[in-house]
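## Example pair
The file below holds two records. Each record gives the amino-acid sequence first, followed by its structure token line.
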Amino acid sequence: MGPDGETISPCCTTGHLHEGHPTGSYRYIDGFQVYYKRPPNNSSENAVILFTDAMGHAYRNNRLLADNFAANGFFVVMPDLFRGDAVPDIVSAGFSASKWLMSHGSQQTEPIVRAVIEEMRKHGCRFVAGAGYCFGAKYVMRYLQDGALDAGFIAHPNWFDSDDALCIKKPLCVVAGENDEVFTGQHRRQMEKLLKTTGVPYQMTVYSGVQHGFAVRCDPKKATEVFAKEQAFNQAIQWFKFHLKTGTRFVGQ
């Protein structure tokens, strides 16, 4: 168990590597690396920060995901949340999940998140949304609390704090898998109950027949998993574009 109470289940680090050739670029912000990709119009006005799962920003699936956000009109920045220490594609027998988590708690990760958001705002990103997968989901929720992010989307979070859900002040879309052993049905119902109390627009969608990690590492040979992954991505795009158009205004703001 990590310093923030979360754990890594085997399903957080397993899945299928997808085919494709990422076309984004790398740069450094305050000493850590980010992967970024500009949209077809080359604008940075409307942006998405992609907070990855434990596999990190260099994992091919995550880079392809970032490229897809860019293809849909967003300037995408995907930071290395682990400073070169992401969980490897093939986990060795000696890998210690608990030790890894101890090295990547909020104290180590939040300075990276803050630096990325500040850098993007400083360089003309007017609308900044957060898309978080597994490990990265909780940071989307935390930065919806103070307006640092304008809208959020999370897929199969590996852990969340009740206060994170209760304190959000911007719209949040949540997608989950029916057979998720980490973000279980009980967790989904708990989160929905908490989100209802906030008065903030939210959406909760459950896809049948899929497990934890489906939105990033689905089996490309299984039509049900591919459908769920593609629909979850489309939800993120439509959620962001709707709140971009409406200015993320809602009753009580």
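Second record, same layout:
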Amino acid sequence: MAHIYTPRSLSDIRELRMRIETEDPLFYGLKKLKMRGRDLANIPPALFHLQELEVLDLSPERESCLTFRLMFVPRTICKLVNLKVLVLDTNELDEIPLEVTKLINIERLALSNNQLSWLPEGFNKLKKLKSLHLANNEFEEFPMQLCEIDGLEFLDLCDNKLHVLPAEISRLSELHTLLLFFNRLEALPETICEMTYLNCLWIGNNLIKQLPRAFGNLKYLDWGVRYTSSTLDGNPLVSPPIEICRMGPGAIEKYLNSSRGDITSRNSNKSLVNGGQRRDDEESDRGQSRNSRSKYENGDGGGKKRTGNTRDNRKSTRARRERNIQLQDYSDEDDK
């Protein structure tokens, strides 16, 4: 059913249009509308008739003490087809409606400080999305759909409950900022070392003990005295230690290569020692075999000696038998 415009709804539309601004320094030149206070608790239906909107901010003001917050996103938001920026931070959202995936012109989406644990099916249709803010939510698994948004440049997943970062994340070939502070990551995939275009990677306050072997390939990361210098702090790092990490990718690469060389060297030395021991054992076995064969052949032991003794015993038995026969003959002669 088509919307019936009443005098009230028309006046609401006019009022909202008067609040549109174009000189926000963050979005200069874009048509922006910021909803405040009670409007967040009860979004006026007239809002979704402002199809010219390019920036919509539905995040509560800090000064309001968060009294008024958005409990859900109206499905009619899909009518705002020209939106480039949608800000929904710091509300009470536990889901994003499927209709958001129809905002195909969206470039920046801010969803931090909510209660989200999943993204709607079809989220990967937002092919123009460049900046996504999902910090301080309830994500336990990395949203795999994000790996299909090739143009994504900025991704903030800090302060969630992520355990694993998928290997497919390397498909984000335009990503330059990846923020993963305060999660439960125990390791990083080897494929992250292929993301050599990263210039900001925050993985502090996780459970990471060891960095991938080729981590030193991330040459564009800033490990200096500026804000990214603490990007790895708060992890139980062993290889390499945090002191090495703070020295930059060159030191990390040198340490990991050196450690790999030491392991190879130790394995090689172990093989040499084991090989030498095996050769000594083989030589000893061959020596014992030669000694045994020599004794056997010389009659000092083994079968030859036993064969000689048997032959001697047979000779002695025949001699005694012959003597007994002779003695018997002598005895018979005497009786005659």
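Notes on the second record: The first helix runs from residue 7 to 18. The beta strands are 32-34, 55-57, 85-87, 108-110, 131-133, 154-156, 177-179, 200-202.
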